[in-house]
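2024-03-11 09:14:02 INFO worker-7 job=invfold-0412 stage=load source=structure_tokens
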């Protein structure tokens, strides 16, 4: 796995780079440069990657993670974890999207340079550690120890010293190891210091527990490129072959004079047969359309898309799909929990306090087919048995999955209504 691969994944996820300027369009073997350039200009990208990741992330954060600490500074950090006003839930939700798309991701736990002398001033000034998501394709060099932690890491960044009158943005390399940090520009150290944490303040996320890593959604990027090219090639066929061709029967074609009047009538000789039209063969376009649909179905399958038409899928196939999604979510949640725990441990080292932070992500998701569960409930009731507890739990499960964006207070009200309704039967 190369760091450069992540630029391609990110382009596919964001619809940027080569998907925006057409450079990911593959040239035909005998295609002229002019025609290829024109095809690049009119190519358009249908981004399915982002919507698949967003849907997955919605399941993952349907129930928010729970973070607890007795320290007031830590609770302040929970509410503003990136020094930009974003709570830990908001930051980690966005971080999880990029992590799912790329398979790996990085967080730098940084500290303000000037720290007030009193706790009150520190709280008022928000002079506490904060999280920074590092663009993984910006990584320059790194070394990982035998425990999977960074000995050191450097990554590309910029410093903006611009004023109203003048632009002044310089490219830099930021370097961190287990005791020091540096900012390097043009191979010269322009700033440096010591953090003395004993650990590198950059933590990595890998969907399979290693860095660098590719995730189960990363392959969607390659399918998106295939889809992008197929649609461009189909568009070329449609532009070149959609319209019927005019044919005129003549013994000597060069003697034929075609005249179009203002009402688009065609004049032809009295001894000639009437002109006709020949329609191009549509089989090529049909083949492309079938292949495009095949790629779209492959993307949906990889992304556990449960919203597609599943009327032809067996109950067992659907169960396997739901189990796969629930297992994937559980694994991803555990990785996210471990990442946060490691990050907050570094925060506590910065602050010189005992780490009493607990982070708990949901581990059981129980995503189900709501229509199927309603059908099962109806079939059980049709047996004629009185099973109030079963009905209550089944209804609560159905409601929890159907109304997955409703806040917990409203869910409690609905669960109470279910219990009251069943008691009244």
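2024-03-11 09:14:09 INFO worker-7 stage=emit residues=425
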């Amino acid at each position: 796995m190369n760091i450069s691969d992540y630029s391609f994944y990110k382009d596919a996820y964001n619809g940027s780079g080569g998907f925006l300027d057409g450079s990911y369009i593959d040239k035909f073997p005998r295609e002229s440069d002019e025609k290829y350039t024109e095809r690049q200009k009119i190519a358009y990208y249908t981004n399915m990657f982002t919507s698949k990741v967003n849907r997955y992330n919605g399941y993952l954060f349907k129930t928010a993670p729970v973070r607890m600490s007795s320290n007031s500074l830590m609770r302040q950090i929970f509410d503003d974890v990136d020094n930009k006003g974003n709570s830990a839930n908001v930051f980690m939700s966005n971080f999880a999207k990029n992590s799912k798309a790329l398979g790996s991701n990085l967080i730098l736990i940084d500290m303000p340079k000037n720290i007030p002398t009193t706790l009150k001033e520190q709280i008022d000034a928000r002079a506490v550690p904060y999280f920074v998501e590092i663009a993984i394709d910006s990584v320059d060099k790194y070394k990982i120890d035998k425990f999977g932690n960074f000995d050191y890491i450097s990554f590309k960044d910029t410093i903006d010293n611009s004023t109203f009158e003048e632009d002044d943005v310089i490219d830099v390399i930021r370097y961190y190891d287990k005791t020091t940090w540096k900012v390097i520009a043009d191979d010269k150290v322009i700033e440096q210091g010591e953090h003395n944490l004993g650990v590198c303040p950059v933590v990595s996320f890998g969907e399979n527990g290693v860095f660098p890593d590719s995730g189960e959604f990363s392959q969607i990027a390659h399918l998106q490129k295939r889809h992008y090219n197929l649609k461009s090639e189909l568009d070329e066929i449609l532009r070149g072959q959609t319209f019927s061709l005019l044919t005129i029967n003549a013994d000597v074609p060069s003697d034929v004079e075609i005249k179009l009047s203002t009402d688009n009538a065609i004049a032809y000789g009295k001894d000639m047969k009437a002109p006709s039209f020949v329609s191009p063969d549509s089989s090529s376009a049909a083949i492309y359309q079938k292949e495009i649909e095949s790629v779209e179905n492959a993307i949906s399958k990889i992304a556990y898309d449960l919203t597609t038409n599943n009327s032809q899928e067996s109950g067992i196939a659907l169960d396997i799909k739901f189990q796969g999604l629930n297992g994937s979510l559980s694994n991803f949640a555990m990785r996210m929990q471990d990442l946060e725990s490691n990050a907050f441990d570094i925060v506590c080292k910065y602050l010189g306090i005992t780490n009493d932070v607990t982070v708990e992500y949901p581990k059981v998701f129980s995503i189900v087919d709501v229509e199927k569960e309603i059908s099962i409930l109806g079939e059980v009731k049709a047996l004629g048995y009185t099973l109030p507890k079963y009905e209550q739990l089944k209804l609560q499960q159905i409601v929890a999955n159907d109304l997955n964006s409703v806040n917990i207070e409203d869910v409690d009200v609905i669960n109470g209504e279910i219990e009251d309704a069943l008691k009244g039967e």
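2024-03-11 09:14:09 INFO worker-7 stage=report msg="The longest helix spans residues 315-351."
2024-03-11 09:14:10 INFO worker-7 job finished
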